[in-house]
Design a protein that fits this description.
single chain, Spore Coat Polysaccharide Biosynthesis Protein SpsA, Chain A, three-stranded mixed β-sheet, alpha/beta, five-stranded mixed β-sheet, about 270 residues, 8 helices, about 25% strand, globular, 12 strands
Length: about 270
């Protein structure tokens, strides 16, 4: 049926509704776009209740546990058997027919794959013609890996349509619906290592992580309005003191019984380090 679960963890973000509306308006088949939202705010936005095929978990913002945890809760509680999934941020824009293009790209791969790439930037109030002049994702490779296996990447362009990587952007992850259930975890892990956790779990379940050169999603990387110091949104880390920074997720994920271990993933990562 080609249904897509679009997963969005949103923290006090006024761009959430514009993101959802743009996602639907640019889709080839909007009736098959389903949304799983983790809304972290001071009040529930009732406009979300009017959007078809949308499920929402509301959390008062002071109870937030970090973006990675809330993304995991969407997969755990809001997945409804969709054939595909797209993980994005609540400040995103889309290419025309993004759904059709992503499905075709994934189905063209000869192996289990997740498609990612660090999306190009869009600025608040930019038009489609303005942000689509930046048509390519960025390929990141590991530059520094800390003791918790948090990866600091370095971006560059690349040749070819697909390039294998170990640096996923959680603002742009497309795969099969099955991927949502294979990458669940039960324990509270590092609040800011969601991208590394996704990559590790993908490796453990024999997915190849690939950057797709063509951008189908754009991401707003700045919290302030264009030409102004005024912020349009607040970051969770600016308001909440998270615990668990120092915890390495690798021993926890090693407990999952798969053909490959999380420890093996750490060796796999080193092959890509420059």
């Amino acid at each position: 049926m080609n249904r897509i679960l679009v997963s969005i963890a949103s923290y006090k973000d006024s761009e959430l509704l514009p993101t959802i509306n743009d996602c639907l308006s640019k889709a080839k088949d909007p009736a098959k776009i389903h949304f799983g939202i983790s809304e972290q705010d001071d009040t529930h936005d009732q406009r979300l209740d009017l959007i078809p095929n949308l499920k929402n978990i509301f959390t008062f913002y002071t109870e937030s546990k970090g973006t990675g945890w809330h993304r995991n809760q969407i997969y755990k509680h809001l997945y409804g058997g969709e054939e595909y999934c797209l993980m994005i941020d609540s400040h995103s824009r889309f290419a025309q027919n993004w759904d059709e293009k992503y499905i075709a790209a994934l189905n063209s791969r000869p192996h289990k794959s997740i498609l990612t790439g660090f999306p190009p930037h869009y600025a608040i109030n930019e038009t489609y013609a303005q942000y689509t002049v930046r048509p390519h994702n960025t390929y990141n490779y590991p530059k520094h890996i800390d003791s918790c296996y948090k990866i600091a990447g370095h971006g560059e362009g690349f040749d070819g349509e697909f390039t294998e990587t170990v640096c996923v952007s959680a603002a742009n992850v497309f795969s099969t619906g099955k991927f949502t259930q294979e990458t669940l975890y039960e324990e509270y892990l590092h609040p800011f290592a969601e991208q590394e956790i996704i990559c590790c779990l993908a490796f453990q379940h024999d997915y190849k992580v690939e950057v797709m050169k063509e951008a189908l999603v754009w991401h707003c990387y700045f919290n302030n309005l264009p030409g102004s110091d005024e912020k349009y949104r607040t970051l969770p880390s600016e308001e909440i003191k998270f615990t668990g920074y120092e915890r390495c997720f690798v021993p926890v994920l090693d407990k999952i019984r798969t053909q490959k271990s999380a420890t093996e993933w750490t060796q796999h990562v080193l092959k890509f380090k420059k």
